[in-house]
Amino acid sequence: MFNKKKKHEFQNIYNKNPETGAYVIEVSLDDYSELFNGWDASPLRRKDLEPELIDYLEQAATEIPLKESVELCFYRPLSIKDDDKESKSITGIKNNFKVVIFFIQKTLRINYRQLLTYMTLSIMFLIGAYTLRNVDQFELLFSIMVEGLFIGGWFLLWEAFTVFFFTSHESRIRKKLFYRYLESEVYFKDTKE
């Protein structure tokens, strides 16, 4: 029952294209410049998307289940229609999605290196602690060192667990969301009356 209610909610928020079956994420524009960051002096096809637009698209992507396909529809007044700008804008939007995916992959590579480092050190500390624990000479300093190895080993193991299951998980989901946008259709339409 909960899944039906949740599905019903996002169906009320986003229209579905009857021809393709994809959910349409709609954005209204007064001008093409609203798509891109005004501080970016790059050519249109290489400009960064407006940060608020990226936030909106990411929010919309999380509301629609990943198994569903999406389309991006930008409504603009008929008076400003420019096929060349629209073509370049679509290229710029897709390029932005590629850049976001690139940085997510870079973050994931860093996370996986941390994971490997934490796991390696954790195993070394724990093996060392269990090996030294069986030594008969237990002086106070030696005993503290063994306990430190245990604590350090378990702490690093927990850090590896956190990186894999929490930090990297969020990045992997974000990557899937932007891949879906990269494969989605992007188009412009006249403003709704």
Task: State the share of residues found in helices, binned by percent.
Answer: 55-70%
Specify the overall morphology.
elongated
Mean pLDDT: 84
E-strand count: 4
- Describe the main β-sheet briefly: 4 strands, mixed
Major beta sheet, strand line-up: 1-2-3-4
Alpha-beta content class: alpha/beta
Q: What is the number of helices?
A: 4
Number of domains: 1
Order of helices and strands: HEEHEHHE
Our measurement of the CA-to-CA distance between the termini, rounded to an integer number of angstroms, reads 37 Å
Radius of gyration: 25 Å
Strand content: 5-15%
What are the low-pLDDT stretches, counting only 5+ consecutive residues below 50?
A: none
Keywords: Membrane, Transmembrane, Transmembrane helix
Transmembrane segments: 115-132, 144-166
Protein name: DUF2812 domain-containing protein
Key phrases:
4 strands; alpha/beta; four-stranded mixed sheet; elongated; 193 residues; 4 helices
Task: Describe it.
The chain has one domain (2-190). It contains four helices and four strands. It has helices at residues 2-13, 51-63, 83-133, 140-183; strands spanning 15-16, 23-28, 70-76, 185-190. Strand 1 (15-16) and strand 2 form a beta hairpin. Helix 3 (83-133) runs antiparallel to helix 4 (140-183). The chain is elongated. The relative contact order is 0.15.
Give the topology.
Elements: H1 2-13, E1 15-16, E2 23-28, H2 51-63, E3 70-76, H3 83-133, H4 140-183, E4 185-190
Parallel strand pairs: 2-3, 3-4
Antiparallel strand pairs: 1-2
Helix pairs in contact: 3-4
Summarize the structure.
The chain crosses the membrane at residues 115-132, 144-166. With 193 residues, this protein is α/β, with parallel strands linked by helices.
